Amino acid sequence: MNIVFCDIDGTFQDLGGEVPQVNYDAIYALQKQGDHFVFISGRGYAQLTELMDQLDSECDVIFSNGGGYKLVGEPVQYNHCLSMAECERVIATLEERNIFYHIHTNEGIILKAVEKYETNILALRKKLEPIGAMGKQIMDFKESFFKEQCQHVDDPYRYLTEHPELKVMKIELMEASDQEHELLRDVLSSDSAEVFSSFIQCLEIVDPKSSKGNAINEFMKKYPGARSYGIGDGENDLAMLDVVDVPVAVGNAKPIVKEKCQKIIGDCLDGGVGQFIFEEIIE
């Protein structure tokens, strides 16, 4: 049996773009021959429903970088969340340094009104100017998403304390300054919180057990002897690539990701995932 673990943003789907049809076709072809395709994403489960609705057949999903999972035919499970003590510590630091951040919970994303971060967003747009139209597209998508699809609250930490039923999957920040990124990595890391970069100019703060590598090891206990593939593009995929039998990078992956991989395939935009599956795995 083959099991393909695949990242979404920048790997299976370009940010806010259409999924190449070959990627969908590859999922169905894998399932038809008795193999598994598993989405493994930094997104929360609430942000995956639109993509899941496009599928003709259900897939297993590992979300929030291993913070939870949804197996076919079973309810959603949340198993590695940030503690309230860590949330308080992290949020206090981000507030003090005026960092643009948002909080992923089991019921969606919360943040302050986007208008409070106009200076931060302008700095991010300037940072992304060198990549031209793509940089503008990324920031337009992000700003629209934060304004229209997230919940806005005056005080995120107080809101969490007032709603103890919420589970915090991760805290994510966007910051234009590379120097600030490095400082925040050091300041925010602890025994109870891991910090890593994802996509463009983002850092994510998660429970240390909330990693794609740990999640895959747990998943593979059900399928001893199966051959595992991991396909990714960013730093949050490194833990996945460390534990699978065949680590694979899309052509647009970061150099540090490509260095970890046995195979470099086509770009995300060109349906590299689907093409690889058809060429290498489908019998």
TrEMBL record:
Gene3D superfamilies: 3.30.1240.10, HAD superfamily/HAD-like (3.40.50.1000). Pfam families: Hydrolase_3. It comes from the Bacteria. This is Hydrolase. It comes from Candidatus Enterococcus lemimoniae.
